[in-house]
Design a protein that fits this description.
Belongs to the triosephosphate isomerase family. With about 260 residues, this protein is α/β, with parallel strands linked by helices. The protein contains eleven helices and eight strands. It has one domain: TIM Barrel, CATH 3.20.20. The structure holds glyceraldehyde-3-phosphate.
């Protein structure tokens, strides 16, 4: 199981470093078993967060990456820069990037390919809007996003890729997908990964759920057979909540 925190455009360098230090301290006190953690702070805090995480195994991720290696792209950040800051993961294709920055499936595919080429694990986000779900189009949209985002990219091992299913209507709204809705889409995504790669690969890829995951609903979501963790927004901005979600994951795994 993997629990990843997406801090979005929250925290400055001081508060982000403090949050990372709180998470590191909580991790040392908790028994999270085999549950892996990652945090994805804003770019400006990456190096100080890396330092604050210290010797813990909490992985560092970024929230975006440019698809070119380097050059005259003012304001952009490359995969190599992320690696040099200590990142192992990068979120790609978050619905906020799709909506507010007009990222297309083709743009996202280029970012996935660039992350992969540089040894970063892309956390590829997919998910439908409320209108798309109401129109009965959710699976179709997710399939296009998944096939579009992964087109032509090969992965050596299942750990080289993470998928996050984030229904747009559940993000930041408190309106979480039901465990059945989440599991149904996760199973569908796993079937697509089987078709694109292999069943062994599909079985082992982490498929995270994102969208108002909180300590009070984490257990029912994480106990679904095809839910392998969470991509947590709001609740990851509080070390106690973030670790509480991970602890739910650990107790589910311990009982499995
Ligand atoms: O990347 C994280 C998701 O957008 C979920 O955000 P949320 O937990 O605040 O709903």
């Amino acid at each position: 199981m993997l629990i990843a925190g997406n801090w979005k455009m929250n925290t400055d360098v001081d508060s982000g470093t403090e949050l990372a230090a709180d998470i590191a301290a909580a991790v040392k006190k908790s028994d999270l078993g085999t549950v892996a953690l990652a945090v994805c702070p804003p770019y400006v805090s990456l190096t100080s967060v890396r330092e604050a995480l210290g010797e813990t195994s909490v992985a560092l991720g970024a929230q975006n990456v440019h698809h070119e290696d380097e050059g005259a792209f003012t304001g952009e950040v490359s995969a190599k820069m992320l690696l040099s800051a200590g990142c192992s993961h990068v979120i790609v294709g978050h619905s906020e990037r799709r909506e507010y920055f007009s990222e297309s499936n083709q743009d996202i595919q280029q970012k996935v390919a660039q992350a992969r080429a540089n040894g970063l694990v892309p956390i590829l986000c997919v998910g439908e809007t409320k209108a798309e779900r109401d129109a009965g189009d959710a699976k179709n949209v997710v399939e296009q996003q998944l096939r579009g985002g992964l087109a032509g990219v090969d992965f050596g091992a299942p750990d080289d890729l993470v998928i996050a299913y984030e229904p747009v209507w559940a993000i930041g709204t408190g309106d979480t997908a039901t465990p059945d809705q989440a599991n149904e889409m996760h199973a569908f995504i796993r079937g697509l990964l089987d078709d694109l790669y292999s069943s062994a690969f599909a079985d082992d890829v982490h498929i995270l759920y994102g969208g108002s995951m909180k300590p009070h609903n984490a257990e029912e979501l994480l106990s679904q057979p095809d839910v392998d963790g969470g991509l947590v927004g709001g609740a990851s901005l509080d070390a106690e909540s973030f670790i509480a979600i991970a602890e739910h994951g650990a107790s589910i795994q311990a009982g499995a």
